[in-house]
Design goal:
Radius of gyration: 16 Å
Number of helices: 4
Helix content: over 70%
Largest sheet: none
Length: 78
């Protein structure tokens, strides 16, 4: 596989992962709550909505980086 194709694939994969995290942040945060139940039973711990906001922010960042990486690979790698 040529390097440009690999770069495009990596960029599109990051874009898709970021888009999923952006669209469904509450579900991802709920999965995290299932994995770490002691953290969410603590009344002083951050709420599920703050976890969802963090997941959404990370999703937007990953999607932006992935899209830029794929676009860069498309334009420069040819």
């Amino acid at each position: 596989m040529p390097p440009a194709t690999l770069d495009i694939s990596l960029g599109l994969t990051l874009l898709c992962l970021g888009a999923v995290a952006t669209v469904a942040p509450t579900r991802i945060a709920s999965l995290r709550a299932l994995l770490f139940p002691a953290r969410h039973r603590n009344p002083d711990a951050p709420s599920l909505s703050s976890d969802a906001a963090l997941v959404k922010a990370l999703g937007v960042t990953v999607a932006s980086v992935g899209g830029a990486f794929a676009l860069l690979a498309l334009t420069v790698g040819q």
